[in-house]
Amino acid sequence: MAFLADILSRVKPSATIAVSQKARELKAQGMDVIGLGAGEPDFDTPDNIKQAAKDAIDRGETKYTAVSGIIELREAIAAKFERENGLSYSPSQIIAGTGGKQILFNAFMATLNPGDEVIIPTPYWVSYPEMVAICGGESVLVETSIDSEFKVTPEALEAAITPRTKWFLFNSPSNPSGAAYSRDEVKALTDVLMRHPQVWVLTDDMYEHLVYGDFEFATPAQVEPGLYDRTLTMNGVSKAYSMTGWRLGYAGGPLELIKAMDMIQGQQTSGTSSITQWAAVEALNGPQEFLADRRKSFEERRDLVVSMLNQANGIECPKPDGAFYVFPSCARLMGKTTESGKVLETDEDFVSELLSQEGVAVVHGSAFGLGPNFRISYATDTDSLRTACERIQRFCASLK
Ligand code: PLP
Questions:
Q1: Do residue 72 and residue 145 come from a single domain?
Q2: pLDDT tens digit string along 143-177?
């Protein structure tokens, strides 16, 4: 339609939202559907956090706030970075926004000129390349593989850097693969970046608290202090504190960049809800012990799903260290035929036949830039996960 902006031709709708929508429609038609498409914890927001929001309303904290967030929140975020990551940011070096999504958007809006490149390892979170495109930049995709546990190698990173590279977008633990980089693995990447002073790091640490076993989370500016002046460390309360609907993400970084992001946000949303900000102060300053219990539940679910998927014919599922996703390969099932006579040519065929034959909603890997794979979000109860995996096993066994 001529009325619409040209930029739309460079942007795709979110495949994860589309899968959740399709699953809802089939459910409404009476089908027994198990949705493993959505990227949000099934746990509720902890009571102390909800109470802080109610108290904020009762105190009348219902007005516009500073664009980057109330000082109490920016101090709580600064304290979090110091306590958990050994990173010192003053409150003026911190911005809070409407979800991690707005923070990323602010950063790209504030820095990308036409032709500027952003290096994004695949598989990637669906929104990264679309955000880069909307902001006028070019995504440079660096493919990983199941053999490297979906982690980018220093050699591949080095090869992707050009004089136009502005950002390296790093996400560990990763959505969609769950891959988490150890301190040594982060160091190997930061060593490459130290040789390319024009490249900044945007690290999306959203799943920091969701790591399993004895895995220890590490973030680039902590591992390589030499990158502090060109790193934007992004995080948020959505996943760790089960606050996806509250909409609060944040970042710490160099003052000039934060000021530019504040300017963009000031002309856009003026920042996130005052009530959400007070809830986030409690999330970050309040008790953290419940995180360990939730980690334990997620770890048990991961182990169940990985073990059951590896028993399905033709599926190969690595065991990642973090997030609440697995990203199995269905490569060995390509070319097979379903009971209804459909030949599976792509991972999109696989997920759509799985949904119509067995009522299990997952997202195809190519939506995240790498296939033939699919993403399962295991942020749901064990019974549903067990049933879903049994159905996937049955579906795979039925293929000829
Ligand atoms: N980054 C990653 C890797 C994510 O998976 C998500 C949400 O799915 C976000 C950022 C955005 O988080 P928020 O809901 O806080 O905008």
A1: yes
A2: 999 999 999 999 999 999 999 999 999 999 999 99
